[in-house]
What does this fold into?
Amino acid sequence: MTSSTLTHLRVAIVGAGPAGIYAGNILANTVAAGGGSVAIDLFESLPAPYGLIRYGVAPDHPRIKGIVTSLHEMLAAGTIRFIGNVEIGRDVALEELQERYDAVILATGAIRDAALDIPGIDLPGSYGAADFVAWYDGHPDVPTEWPLDASAVAVIGNGNVALDVARVLAKHAVDLRPTEIPDNVLSGLEASAVTDVHVFGRRGPGDIKFTPIELRELGEVPDVDIVVHDEDFADADPAAAPNNQLKVMLRILNGWRTRESTSASRRLHLHFYHSPVEVLGDGRVEGVLFERTRPVGDGTVQGTGEFREIAVQQVYRAVGYYGTPVVDAPFDARAGVVSNIEGRVVDAATTGDADAPVVRGLYATGWIKRGPVGLIGHTKSDAMETIAHLVADAGAGLLGAPTVDVDVLELLDERDVAYTTWDGWLALDAHERELGENHVHSRERVKVVPRAEQVAVSRAGALIGS
It folds into this structure.
């Protein structure tokens, strides 16, 4: 990179979750270390920052939400300008960003549920786990009420999202009161009719995608019995586990096999070697048909020809997330990601197409780049790869200069877009914490759910602080 290209860069990042914030922080530090400067604008479609940390983590996991502290420090440093409540493709076009910035980084994540292609999956009473997570986390774009009138529900999936959904469904609302769960969600869970939650995985206990902490917490939920079945544990010897993490989880699961029932008012059933075949029901969900599976020996399973019907009145599919296309950006519909090679966006229908031309100055990071896999640590390393390519391209003179020298905020003002700012988020954050302090149950915060109310509090607070 030459000193001339380091003089000053203007970069837009679309998406204010961990992927976008980490990318901005790494970019600012990298350019500064090279002797240059960079102005970074961080766009977010929601009024508040933090993405899935705010709207995708179960409210009873405050230690995971502790990541917000480090993200807050990055945004508070002043090198990144937060611009919220702005949707690319609606309020401002991707092309308009490309005209105003040397580079644009897409970090929009994956917020939709992956499909489960079986008959009956669209029956009333069948839901995507991501939608339920968004509801209990107070996402402003989902209904404020959720039907919790079923006594028996099925959760299909064997990852942490499935476990979160199952735990929130099984947990008594009183045990969620100390969290930042929104009041409308707390009221809905207090009226819940759920007594039995069934979690189904296609493979065995040795192939679960949980984490030990999440699994251990499951057995500590008050007034909830964990039910497992001996037939699922023929190949679940902790001594044969390939790593310590799995050994711990298998010990936990095997321990539940011998634990006596406490006659709890709710039960959480863990089923393994069950592959969903069809969601059953006449007009709405009445059950799920599963085929029993068995391990083949290469990490996969095959059907046994034995079928079982489990009576439930609701189904939640937690089989993964799927990326949302960014208007006018190349998108691989099969993989659910922006088409790219190591973070450089390419003009192709398939990501990783080495023969496809690179879209100059357009990059991707996070789940929209690599798919919905990996934890926060992967997001950091992912951003480092993308930023390394961006900086290299800047040094090689491959970015091209902005063609419009007008601040994007002027464009948003002309269009009467009610965007929010960092000062506005600080005001909304303080407002939610005050609501928590004054709450009858004295909580850390009470989330403001309606988008219009979030925007009003944010913009009013920003004006007072200015």
